[in-house]
Design a protein that fits this description.
Blueprint: H1 2-18, E1 27-38, E2 43-56, E3 61-77, E4 84-102, E5 108-127, E6 132-149, E7 152-159, E8 163-164, E9 167-168, E10 171-181
Antiparallel strand pairs: 1-2, 1-10, 2-3, 3-4, 4-5, 5-6, 6-7, 7-10, 8-9
Length: 187
């Protein structure tokens, strides 16, 4: 495992030394707020915050480390009585290596990306019969798509985290934010 990690780090370092963005400044930090939607039935919603330092390997490819926190809740109501039948409250944190591919070098830059990393999950199942509290660390992955214009960034991501007991930890993130650095070199 150490040999594979060393080889991967060597390849990434070689790419970073030999290839670099020529149109954009190589370093930037994305900051984003967003809406988090947990998987499952019932009324749901939450909030997320993310910070992602990254490096432009080329004008079209960036690599970075996303650090994100999301707090979500969902409830299922009994339609006849209007009382809550069950609910879940979750807090997820993640540290994921992310890569984005930008489709052009224009002012409006659509992108698609993917990442993988470690998720910390804490959840409480609020059920009158079988309440469950769980905490774990899980490996997960995240595909995403969005666009940048100027220093403004928006994206939609789906975090595949899996289950902890009976609680589904997957969630959709809809983000809006900005980035510091990374602008065009001619500005």
């Amino acid at each position: 495992m150490k040999k594979i990690s060393f080889a991967l780090a060597f390849v990434v370092a070689s790419l970073c030394v030999n290839a670099q963005s020529t149109v954009f400044k190589p370093f930037k930090v994305d900051l984003a707020l967003g809406y988090a939607v947990p998987s499952g039935e019932g009324t749901k919603g939450g909030i997320l915050f993310a910070i992602e330092p990254k490096y432009a390997i080329t004008d079209n490819i960036t690599a970075g480390l996303r650090m994100e926190g999301a707090v979500m809740a969902q409830m299922e109501m009994d339609e006849s009585t209007g009382e809550m039948k069950s609910g879940t409250v979750q807090a997820n944190s993640s540290y994921a290596l992310m890569g984005d591919y930008y489709f052009n070098t224009n002012t409006f830059r659509p992108f698609a990306g993917i990442g993988a990393g470690l998720y910390g999950v804490a959840s409480a199942d609020i059920d009158s019969e079988t309440g469950e509290i769980a905490a774990s660390r899980k490996f997960g992955f995240t595909p995403r798509a969005g666009f940048e214009t100027g220093h403004f960034r928006t994206a939609i991501e789906y975090n595949f985290v899996g289950k902890t007991g009976s609680i589904n930890n997957n969630y959709l993130g809809i983000k809006i934010g900005f980035f510091i650095g990374g602008g065009r070199m001619d500005n």
